[in-house]
Amino acid sequence: MNLRAKAREIVAQMTLEEKSSLCSGKDYWYLKLIDRLGLPSIMVTDGPHGVRKQLSSSEDLGISENVPAVCFPTAVSMACSFDPALLREVGQSIAEECLQEGVSVLLGPGMNIKRSPLCGRNFEYYSEDPYLSGHLAAAFIEGVQSKGVGTSLKHFAANNQEKRRLTVDAVMDQRTLREIYLSGFEFAIKQARPWTVMCSYNRLFGEFVSQNEYLLTQILRQEWGYEGLVISDWGAVVDRVKGVAAGLDLEMPHLDRTHDERVAQAVIAGDLPVALLNQTAENVTALLLRARGQKRAQYNVSAHRALARRAAAESAVLLKNEGNLLPLNPSSSVALIGAFAKNPRYQGSGSSRITPIRVNDAVEELKSLGLRFEYAAGYFEDADAPDEGLLAEACQVAAGKDVVLLFVGLPDRFESETFDRETLALPQSHERLIEAVSEVNHNVVVVLYCGGVVEMPWADRVKSILLMHLGGETVNGAVADLLLGRVN
């Protein structure tokens, strides 16, 4: 008996209350079980670029302590590899970590279109190009699900800003909707068949996506033939009965019994056809059955960190390299400047934030590879205004050196889930540092960390620019490999 037929058989044995209970989760991370029918409770958790399994029971956008996991490069970095095979390999590794932690469904990948360069969550998404986004998302999904762990393709759909993301109404013509905002999802869904698809918070054509029958049923199921489960983003449900009618199977997280009871009452009153509730219950049951056979397995931490380092290097972008300043001559006298060298920006903030195994330090990495240098901080990480004392020290260290390695970028407070950026500029302290150092030394290499687009009015002042985006916990190991030519 196939999975769908088995799910249908089990649902036929359920009471109305049991069916409606499956319309929402057990708590923040677990789905409900029905023990008498052999349906287990399974766990879902965040992680487009690593497993974020919270030790606490409630959601707090990554503030609470999480189980340590390898933080792989973020989607904005991985997209620059243009390498589906690499995405597939990373997906397999993250799935292995899910299996160790008893996680059945990974809430990713995210493939929102980068409509605006100011979106604070752009680091979680691949591209403004739906073709690239669709192919990379499909590869990642295939990698994760090849290990028997589910994925949740998100955020479906037209969710392209953080400001007013809970209420904003996305209105556009059909060609724009189909060619830009849906085509990547369509490819990934048809190619990789994710176990779940996550609906977004926003409205589409005036209707909340969580109860948008046009999107969730007409397009997703009828046109594209999707047979998996549709899950809400956390807290996205407005009207649960309308959601069931529109094709939203699972509300997350569980808040109280009210929504489940309203679904049952709507069926009794004849306001919601029981066939629609049966379909919802079958979709949830099929997911529970699919995950039921998962077994715990340990992963190789060293191998996963080595993959993360290779992925960061393969995702790096050399924007500029005048006079072949890179790779460095190991015998050169070098100034290493910038607090990001010791404490890199390697991931974004919000629900995707991983507790890493260990974050690489460029100072230690370069030392271990035999490079001799003098270090200066250059700026305070928690201040946007330049510090004249640190600037003077940086210039003193830079003067007379053969090469200056300058580590700069966007701090956490400049881009994150829940808010959009106000500017494309780097902090004043970083820009002023580049200007000051480039006045005393013309051989400057800028190593740039950011989750989105940044302005570079200083680009003509420096010889080389190495863009690392947010390259995961081993990013500074990859930087050392690239700067010294150990990888190309």
Short description:
With 488 residues, the protein is of the alpha/beta class.
Describe this structure in words.
The protein has 488 residues and is α/β, with parallel strands linked by helices. The chain folds into 2 domains: 3-291, Alpha-Beta Barrel (TIM Barrel), CATH 3.20.20.300; 316-483, Rossmann fold (3-Layer(aba) Sandwich), CATH 3.40.50. It has 15 helices and 14 strands. The chain has helices at 3-11, 16-21, 75-78, 84-101, 130-145, 174-192, 213-223, 240-246, 258-269, 274-291, 301-314, 362-368, 388-398, 428-440, 475-483, and strands at residues 44-46, 105-107, 150-156, 169-170, 196-199, 203-204, 207-208, 229-232, 317-321, 334-337, 373-376, 403-409, 444-449, 464-467. The chain has a 6-stranded mixed sheet, with helices on one face. Strands 1-2-3-5-8 form a 5-stranded parallel sheet. Helix 4 (84-101) runs antiparallel to helix 11 (301-314). The longest helix is centred in the middle third of the chain and has 19 residues, at 174-192. The protein is elongated and about 80 Å long. The model has no long low-confidence stretch (mean pLDDT 97).
State the major sheet: 6 strands, mixed
Report the end-to-end length measured between terminal Cα atoms: 51 Å
The succession of helices and strands, N to C, reads: HHEHHEHEEHEEEHEHHHHEEHEHEHEEH
Task: Kindly report the name of the CATH homologous superfamily of the largest domain.
Answer: Glycoside hydrolase, family 3, N-terminal domain
Structural class: alpha/beta
The coarse overall form would be elongated
- At CATH level 3, the topology of the largest domain is TIM Barrel
Q: Estimate what percentage of residues fall within beta strands.
A: 5-15%
Q: Roughly how many Å is the radius of gyration? A: 24 Å
CATH architecture of the largest domain: Alpha-Beta Barrel
Write out the strand line-up for the largest beta sheet, numbering strands in chain order.
9-14-13-12-10-11
